[in-house]
């Protein structure tokens, strides 16, 4: 398997635990643009280190932005009938079933503070964990969905490239285009949803991609910072 190649200002490094390794390296002051990856036989795992110059509340947009970047990347490499949808909490669905997830972490949880670093991680199943897939119809793997010709290295490279395109567009024009793109890929709008001890009908997202829920008692807005992983 060849080593991945990334755009200028990005650098790659292999590690068996990309997400936690990226957070540790970011905490020690590594450069933004580091892509840590693990290209296993049955799954692709990677993480990108960012150094935001805006508050955490604004920088959390990197999670949906990386999700749209992944959809664009896979869309360019997979058969045209392959459907990719994104859950607000990070899960990635391919042809309706969960195939992977995005995670996010930072050195702060204060939405009004400018973080020193932000890490977005990607994990994607390439092959099913078992040949017996009938018992888990809501779970799938990339190569079980007609995408056996998609090379994991090429997909990783494309994810970084399309994410960079998204970052440049967000920097130039703001969140409006990204907001529209993400809502077009969102899974479960109009359906019941439970997040921890909160539940309601998923109505959509606000201008900072916070999720809007409505139940019999009240309407709720849960900010994206709710999804920050404790590392």
TrEMBL record:
Domain BPL/LPL catalytic intervals: 6-183
Recorded GO MF terms: ligase activity
Domain DUF4444: residue ranges: 189-230
One Pfam family this sequence matches: DUF4444
Keywords of this entry: Ligase
Name of the protein in question: Biotin-(Acetyl-CoA carboxylase) ligase
Species whose genome carries this gene: Yoonia sediminilitoris
């Amino acid at each position: 398997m060849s080593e991945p190649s990334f755009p200028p200002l990005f650098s790659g490094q292999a590690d068996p635990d990309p997400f936690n390794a990226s957070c540790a390296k970011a905490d020690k002051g590594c450069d933004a643009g580091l892509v840590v990856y693990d290209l296993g036989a049955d799954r692709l795992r990677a993480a990108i280190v960012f150094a935001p110059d805006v508050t955490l509340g604004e920088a959390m947009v990197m999670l949906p932005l990386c999700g749209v970047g992944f959809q664009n990347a896979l869309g360019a490499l997979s058969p045209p009938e392959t459907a990719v949808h994104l859950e607000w909490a990070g899960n990635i669905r391919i042809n309706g079933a969960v195939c992977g997830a995005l995670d996010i972490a930072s050195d702060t949880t204060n939405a009004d503070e400018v973080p020193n670093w932000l890490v977005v991680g990607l994990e994607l199943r390439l092959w099913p964990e078992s040949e017996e897939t009938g018992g888990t119809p809501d779970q799938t793997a990339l190569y079980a969905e007609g995408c056996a010709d998609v090379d994991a290295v090429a997909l990783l490279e494309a994810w970084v490239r399309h994410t960079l395109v998204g970052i440049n567009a967000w920097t130039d024009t703001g969140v409006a285009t990204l907001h529209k793109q993400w809502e077009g890929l969102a899974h479960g709008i109009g359906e019941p949803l439970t997040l921890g001890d909160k539940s309601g009908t998923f109505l959509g997202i606000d201008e900072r991609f916070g999720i809007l829920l409505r139940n019999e008692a009240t309407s709720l807005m849960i900010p994206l910072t709710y999804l920050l992983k404790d590392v």
